[in-house]
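Pasting two entries for a bug report.
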Amino acid sequence: MIKHMTMATVVVAALLPVAASAQSPRADLEYCSALGAKYARYVGSAETSPRRLIPCADLEGRVALAKCEQGDAATAIPILERKLTNAKVSLPERG
């Protein structure tokens, strides 16, 4: 009995950091939106933008922005984070 309780304690202790790091879907969508805004402003712009000095968003970036707008933050966040990091743009705070 004690052996099983010890094993259960170990399993629960191992899973606590995972549960603590999980964000609510709303928080993920807000973070995704903040990433998208930074990406659109500093990395890519709409193809019809009058500011032609800013490079247009690449296809992967545009797809990530669309995924974010559709509520698929899990797909969009890693892409947008990578795009911003590669462009040496700081990531927004994750709340």
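Entry 2 (this is the one that rendered wrong in the viewer):
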Amino acid sequence: MTDTIRRQKARFKLAAIGCSVLLTAAFPFISTSATAQVAESPEPASLSYARMAELASSSPTVARITVRSIVALKRERAPDLPETRSRFYVQAETLGLIRSDGVMSKRISFLVDGSAENARRPNLKNKIFLAFGKVGQQVSEFQLSASTALVPWTPANEALARKVIEDLYAPGAPGPITAITSAFHVPGAIVGEGETQIFLGTADGSPISLSVIRRPQEQPHFSVSLGEVVDDSAKLPERDTLLWYRLACSLPDQLPPLSLTELARNDAEAASRDYSAFRAALGPCDRTQTPVI
């Protein structure tokens, strides 16, 4: 093989690698292809579905990183922090992108706040984390979505992050809930029978309605419909799904008074009772935040 041919092949190989990097960075997130699948782990994820959804939905970029150095900044460089907190300058190496809205450097730096007690020895060096945030004006600059947006990497945590991102960007995925727009109650023909329907506003304008049906000697039937028409076959969403997260983590504890203004007193009381039962059936929204520093 001549030197000219060798040089041409080398150029073609470098060009292909460069195109692959640019194409990957152009998509809003990196799908879980066969080569990117994370093996299932017997250990559960350390984050709840709700907390992971909160982080992923507010973070244009999710990356797997290794911390290479971490230094506590002097107090005068972080005057806005209380005495119990410290700010750290972190340099890290990017190991892979789970989701990205642009190009991200192999070497990045970012700031993270933590406990002042750990200012001298924050034990993060050479540890692997999932970093949730966005790329700055320079591709080597990274901004965490929150001080708790640095999550210890485990196969289970990465698998959960990928699942949540897939749920968030699936066709027809329910958008954020913005308000309870109206509610009404229809009593049944016999005592103990009735139906309450509650209509929600969403960020993307897609309709969501809640339904509570009561019959004598039976447990209430709870359901959620996505669409203009109430689906009689709908059910309560399963826990740790995107629809469950939207409802459990967004709905207020009680029906707002404005949603009941057109109802008679008895119907308003029944609707409020049914709504409280629906919220209880959803279960609590666990968004516990665990800082790494």
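Dev reply: Rendering is fixed now. As a check, the viewer should reflect this: The first strand starts at residue 61 and ends at 72.
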